[in-house]
Amino acid sequence: MRKLKITELNRLSVDEFKRADKLPLVVVLDEVRSLHNIGSVFRTSDAFLVNGIYLCGITATPPHPEMHKTALGAEDTVDWIYRKHTLDAVKELHEQGYTVLAIEQVEGSTMLGDLQLDREKKYAIVMGNEVKGVQQEVVDACDGCIEIPQYGTKHSLNVSVTTGIVLWEFANKLMSFRE
Q: Is the residue at 62 inside a domain?
């Protein structure tokens, strides 16, 4: 096997990305503090053609050199909006017809592998703070919660890792425009 060169990967230009059909999915970052995690979420969102990102509360906004270290320019391709309060973002998304799901460990959560999605709907996923997770009031405002099964001794995953896992699952189930 030979590794492919960057020029062989047929990646979209920034303009092509902006015009491309997007996954009917928005990522909401609820009080995420790490610039590296935020940058990583931008980069992963670019990889899966996510429709946009809401940056809420203490979550930093581009441009920022520390964020750019992990985003590698994805902060220029993926559309983003800042909202001071995550609840305002959830309300706005509901008004736009999104089903809003928190990624959190709660009573009655849906395990990620069991998640059923409708290709005719739009979704938003809320990712929480590195220490506290998704705020309870935000969980209460969501339409449901998704949980990633974990089998080891730790009770949580890094927010950027979690986002990658969840985006992969959503892309697998919703990328009908790529078939």
A: yes
Beta bridge partners of 110: 146
Give 118-176 pLDDT, tens digit per residue.
999 999 999 999 999 999 999 999 999 999 999 999 999 999 999 999 999 999 999 86
pTM across the whole model: 0.96
Tokens 């946009």 correspond to what residue?
Answer: 52
In-domain check, residue 124: no
Q: Residue 6 half-sphere exposure, CB side, CA atoms within 13 Å?
A: 2
Q: How many domains does the chain have?
A: 1
Question: Is-contact 42 74, C-beta < 8 A?
Answer: yes
Beta-ladder partners of 126? 28, 102
∠ CA(121), CA(138), CA(54), 5° rounding? 60
Neighbour tally for 12: CB within 10 Å = 13
DSSP 8-state symbol, 141: H
The answer to whether the CB of 66 falls within 8 A of the CB of 37 is no
Tell me the residue type at 33: R
- 46 in helix, strand or coil? helix
Task: Report which DSSP code applies to 12.
Answer: P
